[in-house]
Structure formats: C-alpha cells, structure tokens
Amino acid sequence: MIKIRVGGWAGQGTVLAGVVLGDALAIGQGYDVVQTRSYSAAVRSGISYSDIIADKERVDELAIDVPDYMIIQYQKTLDAWIPMVKKCGCLIVDSNQVHDVPETNKLISIPASEIAKDIGNAKAANMVLLGALSNLLPELDYDAVKRAVVKTVPKRYEENNLEALEAGYDFVAKL
C-alpha cells in the first residue's frame, strides 16, 4: 500500500497534483486508489491538501495516519503537520517556500518555485514536485504521470506542466 499526502496553501495546485497522481496510479497503472482532498473555504488562503492511498489490492482506508511520502509546498502547512512530518517515510519540500524542516526519515529539498518560474509558469511548482516524486517512488510509472498531466491540465498549460514535471524528475536523478 502506498500513502501520499500533497499539501500546501490553497491555490498552489495541491488538489490538481493529487488528481494527476491518482489518475496515473488508477487509470495508468491499474491500482485501486482512494483520493481525498481538503480545500480551504477561503479561496487562495488556508491549508489545502490531497491524500492518495493506492494498492494493487482493494483499498479500504480513507484516511492517512502516517504517509509514505509527503509533498509540502508551504511552511505553514508543514508547521501544522509537524508530528506527521517527523514520521513520514520521505518528505519532499519546495525549498523556496519551506525553510524550517524538522528532522525526518528522508528529506528531498527542491527549489520547485524557482524552477517553475524559470520554465515560464510559476504556478507549475506542484508539477516540479510531482516529477520529483515520480523519480523517488518505484511503484509510480513516470509515463503514466505524463499521460495524466496531458489528460488533466488545460491544453494551453500542457507544455509548461510537462516541462516542470521533467525538471523535477531530472533534479532528483542528479542527487
């Protein structure tokens, strides 16, 4: 069973990242997937997250107690989840937005916002981080993630999002 939480501040694309990830695992790879999300009632402020639980067998869980992987895009989000962060298997953070990280099992710090801005779409930091996860998570097929991006994002943002995904994948490959 794979448990992943993608968290950030509302408006950073955490829900979109969760939808892409869930699609890649379920449609692209045949996993049974439960994807839940929480989006703050206030537009573009407040904590937002997506939880993805996937398994080749039937998934009967709806909540994540300790994720195998966490993607965090904003410092206040990490601060709210310190106990979970300390226990998670692998923490992936946007180092442009998250500066104070407690000790955890494994930390991947990537300047996702800067990379996305350099690509030409500052809002694609979520895809940079998803690309990083794609390289770290052995069960996740990178081509399935690319297909899910094409299927999910508006056509006008497709190229930027795929480039951001690849940049995150390549960043981890160089570590």
Please identify the oligomeric state.
single chain
- Unreliable stretches (pLDDT < 50, length at least 5) are none
Which term fits the overall shape? globular
What is the CATH topology classification name? Pyruvate-ferredoxin Oxidoreductase, domain 3
Count of structural domains? 1
Straight-line N-to-C gap? 26 Å
CATH level 1 name: Alpha Beta
Q: Could you state the order of secondary-structure elements as H and E?
A: EHEEEHHEEHHHH
SSE topology:
Blueprint: E1 2-9, H1 14-26, E2 32-38, E3 47-55, E4 69-72, H2 75-80, H3 82-87, E5 90-94, E6 107-110, H4 112-119, H5 125-136, H6 142-152, H7 155-173
Parallel strand pairs: 1-4, 4-5, 5-6
Antiparallel strand pairs: 1-3, 2-3
Helix pairs in contact: 1-6, 4-5, 4-7, 5-7
Q: Could you explain the architecture of this structure?
A:
- The protein is of the alpha/beta class.
- The protein has one domain (2-173): Pyruvate-ferredoxin oxidoreductase, PFOR, domain III (Pyruvate-ferredoxin Oxidoreductase, domain 3).
- It contains seven helices and six strands.
- It has helices spanning 14-26, 75-80, 82-87, 112-119, 125-136, 142-152, 155-173; strands at 2-9, 32-38, 47-55, 69-72, 90-94, 107-110.
- The protein has a six-stranded mixed β-sheet with strand order 2-3-1-4-5-6.
- Strand 2 (32-38) and strand 3 form a beta hairpin.
- Helix 1 packs across helix 6 and helix 4 (112-119) crosses helix 7 (155-173).
- The longest helix is centred in the C-terminal third of the chain and has 19 residues, at 155-173.
- The mean pLDDT is 94.
